[in-house]
Amino acid sequence: MTDPVLRWAEGAGTGVLLDGFHPLKHALRFGAEVPVAVTTDRSAALALAGELAADLVDTLGALLTEVTEETYASLVPRPHPTGVAALAVRPSRAGNLRALARTPRTAPVVVLDNPRNLGNAGAVIRLAAGFGATGVVTTGTLDPWHPTVVRGGAGLHFATAVERLAVEELPAGPVFALDPEGEDIRGTKLPDDAVLAFGSERNGLSAELRARADHLLALPMRPQVSSYNLATSVAMALYHWSVTGGASVTP
Ligand SMILES: C[S@@+](CC[C@H](N)C(=O)[O-])C[C@H]1O[C@@H](n2cnc3c(N)ncnc32)[C@H](O)[C@@H]1O
């Protein structure tokens, strides 16, 4: 086996950093290709796997290479309490676009229209993975594969199709755009092929997205509260889909 530091150097330019045990666990569970994984304490990492991811003990046993604290610190921007880090191969855009375009869809696509906050985007990807959404599409300049988004997504970018697209390239399907001025979402059943769109933290939905929307839906909210946080709005809408249709979501 080649030196893990060399393999890390080979993958660092294009690989997705999995920063800690849990992102590595999630990425492996959802089929990520992980060419290199290091730990400062192999037996502690495998003990953690035994406790929290019995399904991955053998995989992690074969994958994890122990390195010194100094080597580990030289590979990651900041050390993680679990002392585990790995690089994964980013899924191809072509494959993600195929997944987003595939019909009939069994679960919605979430669209974040020009999101600004990297932490919100990560939290939304984690939600989409949990609900089995088909994918998360962002419009605008934010990179949904930015390392901070990946950190917020806890390794779950590999469990759903995550891509950036222009509004005119959004997947087919009825667009349900979420907006405080819309109709009460409680009167609407969200279909499995819904495109659920959410506006940016500061400005809400763009004119382009509004023009593309088939329905404008509001989440219940008391008068005098202006809006909810973006990620919590996605959580409520996906939960609403899961209870009104959402046949594919099982606890
Ligand atoms: C922080 S809010 C945006 C607030 C922004 N100032 C505005 O004018 O809409 C981010 C996004 O969350 C969703 N959202 C927040 N509260 C909502 C509500 N009560 N009903 C429906 N969507 C909501 C919308 O998609 C909104 O564009």
Automatic annotation (TrEMBL):
InterPro entries in the cross-refs: Alpha/beta_knot_MTases, rRNA_Methyltransferase, SpoU_MeTrfase, tRNA_m1G_MTases_N
Top-level taxon: Bacteria
Keyword set, alphabetical order: Methyltransferase, Transferase
Biological process terms in GO annotation: methylation; RNA processing
Pfam families: SpoU_methylase
Domain (tRNA/rRNA methyltransferase SpoU type) ranges: 109-239
Molecular function terms from GO: RNA binding; RNA methyltransferase activity
Protein name: rRNA methyltransferase
Species whose genome carries this gene: Streptomyces brasiliensis
